[in-house]
User: Fold these one by one.
Assistant:
Number 1:
Amino acid sequence: MALFAARTPTLVAAALVGGALVLSVPTVVSATPRPANATTALTAAHAAQATSRVLVLRRGSHGAEVTRLQRRLHVKASGTFGVLTVAAVKRFQHAHKLAPSGVVNAATWRLLVRFTSPAPTRRYGDRGSWVKVLQKDLRVSPQSGYFGKLTKAAVIRYQKGHRLTPSGVVGGRMWAMLGHGGSIPKVSGPASRSKTRGRTCPVPGSTFTDTYGDPRAGHTHKGVDMFKHRGAAILAIETGTVVRAHWSGSSGGWTITLKGRSGAKFFYAHNDKNLVKAGQHVTIGDKIATMGDTGDAKGNPQLHFEYWPSGKEGAAVNPTPLVRSLC
């Protein structure tokens, strides 16, 4: 975005979403006159920017972005921001002359994407897709996926040419310099919203990121994982009828399928306890289950939420935009 001579930044707004704090990114407002035909585009750009908020992680946060953070900091990737992650964040902040708060805010994210990467450390003898990525970046041929002598020599040349320690090992700083530092995670939409157009947030105050389509064991992710504490209330997203409420097996655990009056269906999985039965009528906002980690959630309380707008079961679309608009 072009910056003009006269400008006034807006104040940064903050809101707490579950275990994560979100901060509004300041909008730059120019005092320089603009052509009339630019007004609509400018207004739309400012509106989009104003709703783009940095995802701030702290102790108690959960989810995919916590897992990525842990990979950056070489902490066991549990997806839960615990004491070990706090300590690792503080070490990083101290090393980069930031106040060691243990909270990953906008300033910390800026340095994380510059100096670290969620990509794995790679060294001589390694194999796999990340080695192929490295070989492509360094123009090593053949791009075999094996980290051999040619690849190591190319890594050392790069490190020497970019004032890095010529170790031959590719860590976070080099990955970031090669363009794999990632981006600062954002949360779009308002931090909290009440019932909207006959629907409400399935788990108010939860933390979530867009992981729809991410690879899973033998399939891709068809929902959004919403994280909060065990026992948190899970609500009926809209008025409708419970199609099923049962134990679905070792994958989903206790699940609920709800058909809304709109004709759409919604799938809730990993519940600790179902509070409704098949055939039961529910009203928007009714508590229908409590959050747990049944099925393959593996000790990480969450709601796996799927959205089937056509009403055809299994015809999932990305539910993240819907959840963001409601939560």
Number 2:
Amino acid sequence: MADHFGPQLAPLPSLVAAAEATSRLRVGTFVLDNDFRHPAALAKEAATVDLLSAGRLELGIGAGWNPADYRKTGLPFEAPGVRISRLEEALAILEAYFAGDGPVSFEGRFYAVHDLDPAPRPVQRPRPPLLIGANGPRMLRLAARHADILNFPDRPPVGTSTAGNPGLGIAFDAQLELVRQTAGERYAHLELSSLLIPRVTDQPQAVLEGLAEQMHTTPEVVAAMPGTMVGSVEAIVEKLQRNRDQFDLSYPVLGLAALDAFTPIVARLAGT
């Protein structure tokens, strides 16, 4: 479930309903805006969802990106650095709460908690998996240090847009190397994910050119993005397998609108 102030259900209650209606389906947020909830309240609610779902929660969280959400709620849409710093403090509180080693105390620039009882406890140990989406260098480092699942977005690496300053950006292979270096030993336990741009088509070049125009970059940049799945069923299957083998990308994320088009791809990958 996404987290926006638009025509959608609130994410956390919706996950409980989905978990109650199923027995094996994992449920998750993709992703919560950290600025909408105090981390103490979020920790308690996330632990409750994990408990009520019998340990099936994946907690996705980010620094916030949509100015419209902030305008609608009257929240200040502060500079990225401020939002990321606030997220970093929130992650420290969430991690301490989920560890359950005793009452949580934290004093930071943005948040303070004192003797916060970590109750209820989540079912999953050591904690419900944390999913963090990252694109720029600072968020990549943050995710490499804290995430269990790191998701790369469906847009070019920061700085590769022709509308921006290419000197600010890093290509995907460099992004991945930054994650490896920052994560160190925990890289072996970090699951890498990509948000897909799914287009099953017999005219891939035309589709790539259209996407490049929307993203203010080149078709070559779009084609090189790991989440770009444009072409025949066979071509997409090959790229998904190549992503896994070359980049350790084992968790593709697909939007609801593409489920029917991807049915033969899933069948092919499953060997059915």
Number 3:
Amino acid sequence: MLKEILIEQNPHWSGTKNISIVRDQLHKIIDYLPLKQIITISGIRRCGKSTLAWQAINYLIDQQILANNILFVNLEQPYFIDHKHNTNYLNTIYDEYLKMMNPQGRVYVIFDEIQFFQNWQVFIKSKYENQSIKFIITGSNSSLLSNDLNTLLSGRSLNVHLDTFSFTEFLRSQEIEYDNEVERIKNRIAIARAKEEYLEWGGFYEVFSVTQPSLKREILISYVKNIIYQDIVPRHHIRNSEVLERLFYYLISNITGILNYTQLAKTFEVSDKTIKEYIGYFEDVFMLKKIDKFHTKEKVQIKSSKKIFSLDNGLLQISIKHSKNSGILLENLTYIFLNQQYKKINYYREKYEIDFICQDDSFSGYRLIQVSYDISHEKTRKREINSFKYFDLGKANKKQIITLDTNEIINDIEVKSFDQLIWAK
């Protein structure tokens, strides 16, 4: 049976190529392939980790690597359920592959959703010193590919994090050309329509590949249930899974809002500690992420009130108070983009609010960002502009207002549409 599964999961052995939309992160995989370190691909379920691994396989074959030197195994295949507690079965899989294909030279081993097997790190470490094996492993849990891995494999791995489709990847999937200004002007109507679709439904490939909103929602709900009941509940031995699920729906119904742990604890009749743990689990599987309120002292930031964001806009469409709040959608989408660009993002709220304060090593000051779907109304325009006046640390701050489709300069403030923010990256 194992032999049949390996043949089924490795169509490249018989010359079949997996064709898909090339993801932006492929270039990182290609850069890491010649190195000895294990490549880990992390990301939320259904974001395309397996597809990215297959694109790496295609690249290797294009570089004249023999197909039988490449092994791909999806460890979530039902056949492996009876073996997931037996780490040594990973050896059995590898040995069976060697018998079948008799590879010569360097071997590339891709284990997809490796967290399915307990103590998988022990197997990987046992093979790591073998110069003839290059591992690529994927997983849907940040703890599995950071804390646990680093404990046993410190310095031996390089991570590539994969999000759901970015806006530019989404445009490529729709065959909309955007590479230069001429193409963007020529395709401005198609780009505008795509922006509205992406704003509302996010970047899960299976979601934007169907047209009916009801089907999109069903797919997203199935994703959430799979993540909660396959990735979170078993790993953390959660007994009251209903509270966990209800909390998630509550959080995405209040996305971009301030977290109040005490109030949440009262609402769900659990402790503050449990609420914090559950939100941490959602972060571990890349569903949600929280940010701190800005302060010049790190300790104060850590203790500050948090704002919560979703890592894909589509998830907002299955909230318990489902409605199309365009301002929230745009703010969340802007956060997703910034999260891919900056190591540190905060918010600020006193008399006025700054939606995002971004810092990195390439800029000595701060990037201050306000998000407003539409600033055509004078009252909204003044509110957004005035917010910047109340945040000044004497540094060369870069000020921006992100809108849906307005582009202009107001004194020292850049007003950019979301797509112009992407082009300027």
